[in-house]
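re: that chain from earlier
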Amino acid sequence: MEKDLFVERYLKWGGKVVAITEKPCFRINTTLITPEQLLKRFDNEDIAVRKVPYLDHGYEVLTSSFSIGSTIEYLLGYYYIQSAIAQLPVLILQVNENDLVLDCCASPGGKTTQLAQYMNNNGQIIALEKKRERLSRLKNNLERCQIANTTVYHMDARKNHELGVCFDKILVDAPCSGNYVTDKHWFSKRTPEDFVRMATVQKAIIKSAIKSLRPGGTLVYSTCSLEPEENELVIDYALRHLPVTCKSTGLQLGTQGLQQPFERTLHPDIRHCRRFWPHQTTTQGFFIAKLVKK
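^ sequence. v structure.
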């Protein structure tokens, strides 16, 4: 699909295609080190950072003479390199030390290790990964960050209900088509047909996850896609066909979910979703919804 067609498509919904270069970001692993201790070590290594105001433990790298993935502190698991916007879904899920949590699409482990951090390495996390070749990276990151409360399964998230477990909280950071900020060739690779095919997978994951969620439990759905087919239309499907309600994320960042994409009126609770346009947030594109099981 031509870039101009995407530009036209986004303009209808309040979006723009702009050149965005995200600064490297990381999350301090407070189960192993305090922010004060790590930032002092960074000062000694001439790494300048700035706190991301809407995150608890997220920092943006302003200047560094070397890759922040090559430090002793990184190898010791004191921090995880993770984009700022990707740290929001776990923040919204609000896990605690007593929760039983399912991470549906876990590798490479950024959100899994973040979940464990908010749980103080207590409770229990079940982390699923469909692709065998991605399992080693997930397990390596769990080991590096000294995560002790997580069990990894080689499993397609569309079958998560087959575990026969009732979870308190579920994270569905769904496989998606991505966005143009993270791939300079993105426009030439994608078509609307791709989005529809991906949405079929996403709906199947949510359908299975809701079966695994206890009544009153919370599911957070997120993608790094800007496409309504993979975002608002998936949540509209869930609201109309599954026993869930859509709740406010509590975020000020971003805008409400699109309520009339393709001249189609969606469920009114879609307004509680958050959509992150790169030209507004200076991040990659993103989408988050918070669902609660009836």
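The first strand starts at residue 25 and ends at 28.
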